[in-house]
Prior knowledge:
The chain is of the alpha/beta class and 248 residues long. The chain is built from 13 helices and 5 strands. Strands 2-1-3-4-5 form a 5-stranded parallel β-sheet, sandwiched between helices. Helix 11 links the parallel strand 3 and strand 4. Helix 7 crosses helix 13. It is globular and about 60 Å long. The two termini are 15 Å apart. About 2% of the residues have low confidence.
Amino acid sequence: xxxxxxxxSSMDAFTETERTIAEFVISNKHLVLxxxxxxxxxxxxxxxxxxxxxxxxxxxxxxxxxxVELAKEKDSLDEGDIETFLNPSDSLMALLQKTENMLTxxxxxxxALLDYHALEKAIESINKAKTVYLLGVGGSSIVCLDFxxxxxxxxxxxxxxxxxxxxxxxxxxxxxxxxxxxISYSGETESVNSIAKVAKKLxxxxxxxxKYNLKSTLSTLSDIRLFVPVEEKEIRLGSITSRNSLxx
Length: 248
């Protein structure tokens, strides 16, 4: 998973000190790799402890583990001057080019954010489960239906229903170690989160597929988290990119 992308996606959730550290990491990757915690604390006028806490908040055991992953990063994840915002005056050719740029960029960001170990755990859990349950409404229901059809082709026992009341009745019958996959871009869809909480109490493992936000309800509820990029576009364009990354 891309360290820099995780940092950029979490900016709004950082404290003032964490934001100072985050901005320093983004702008001074090589300096971070060469300095120890005390030196980094002195340079940023924070503290060694603040750097260790920041590393752990980003999901690493400590600063050394954080630096190992940072060292794997390319020198830049900047989007450059690729234009993706659609304008009413655009020609058809311009619209096609911008759409291609938008989708290509989205796929790159999706794979940059992918946690290989979390994905591996999700696959293992699905393989061991007697039954897999899917939760998702609205635009996420399309993703659920797509995944449902894919799983039936490999003879995996899988349950999904757009009617949450019907689905709730089925979830009440789940067995320990069954898996519930919850798909929600926002991570705050109350109706599916409430069912996921019931499933978890009954012993199911919850796999959350949501935008990168460590503090969202679905993120904190999930045993395994699979993140998709946070959209920062002015208009979500009918959820094209978010649905594309969820489908991926």
